[in-house]
């Protein structure tokens, strides 16, 4: 079972500071690129806005959306479009998630979670597996989430787990209960399957 550290009631500034430290450490450890995957939805963007105030060598950061909705990048539901609009002016690269991409090892895998226990776009109905041979898959959530009722593209569990550290931001009591059950091995939701396969440190900001 994963080694999970929970940081309670973390404000966006606190999470951005932690991300800055992680990125600074990774950048200092190499002359090459530092590669992270980040979530979409709504939770991460105010945190990313704070993070981008940091004085880092953004030109060496490669950002992979962990998932996206199958919509044009200028659609309001596009995770990639929002990430590109934020990270690219700072000098970072934002990858377009397609099933043709070769997914690298991530210095950091940052995840959100839905109240249904989905992570990235690995929804419960899609039965994500730890031994999935593909790194990126296209999926249809069922039921379609009303806030973003679109087909999806997503990193798979093995692709997310190929990372040095996993960080979650889980806001709200309903999500927290789902996360705690998963962390305790008491559910079989996608988040529980990921945690069951995690051998790296996991930090969860609530
Ligand atoms: O649809 C999605 O939802 C999850 C959770 O989003 P949140 O706004 O409730 O935190 C997100 O992690 C995922 O990337 C996104 O596509």
UniProtKB/TrEMBL annotation:
Belongs to the glucosamine/galactosamine-6-phosphate isomerase family. 6-phosphogluconolactonase subfamily. This is 6-phosphogluconolactonase. Its EC number is 3.1.1.31. Hydrolysis of 6-phosphogluconolactone to 6-phosphogluconate. It comes from the Bacteria. InterPro entries: 6-phosphogluconolactonase_DevB (IPR005900), 6PGL (IPR039104), Glc/Gal-6P_isomerase (IPR006148), NagB/RpiA_transferase-like (IPR037171). It catalyses: 6-phospho-D-glucono-1,5-lactone + H2O = 6-phospho-D-gluconate + H(+). It comes from Qipengyuania aurantiaca. Pathway: Carbohydrate degradation; pentose phosphate pathway; D-ribulose 5-phosphate from D-glucose 6-phosphate (oxidative stage): step 2/3. Residues 13-87, 101-197 form the Glucosamine/galactosamine-6-phosphate isomerase domain. Pfam families: Glucosamine_iso.
């Amino acid at each position: 079972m994963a080694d999970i550290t929970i940081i309670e009631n973390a404000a966006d500034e606190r999470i951005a500071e932690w991300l800055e430290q992680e990125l600074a450490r990774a950048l200092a450890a190499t002359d090459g690129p530092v590669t992270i995957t980040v979530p979409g939805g709504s939770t991460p963007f105010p945190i990313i806005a704070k993070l981008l105030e940091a004085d880092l060598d953004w030109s060496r950061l490669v950002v992979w959306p962990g998932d996206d909705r199958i919509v044009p990048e200028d659609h309001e539901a596009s995770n990639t479009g929002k990430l590109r609009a934020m990270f690219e002016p700072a000098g970072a690269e934002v990858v377009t998630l397609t099933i043709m991409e070769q997914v690298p090892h991530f210095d950091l895998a940052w995840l959100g979670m839905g109240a249904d226990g989905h992570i990235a776009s690995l929804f419960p109905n899609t039965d994500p597996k730890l031994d999935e041979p593909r790194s990126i898959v296209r999926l249809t959530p069922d039921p379609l989430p009303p806030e973003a009722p679109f087909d999806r593209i997503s990193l798979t569990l093995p692709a997310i787990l190929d990372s040095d550290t996993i960080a979650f931001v889980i806001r709200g009591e309903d999500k927290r209960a789902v996360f705690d059950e998963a962390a305790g091995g008491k559910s079989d939701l996608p988040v529980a399957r990921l945690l069951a396969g995690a051998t790296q440190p996991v930090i969860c900001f609530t």
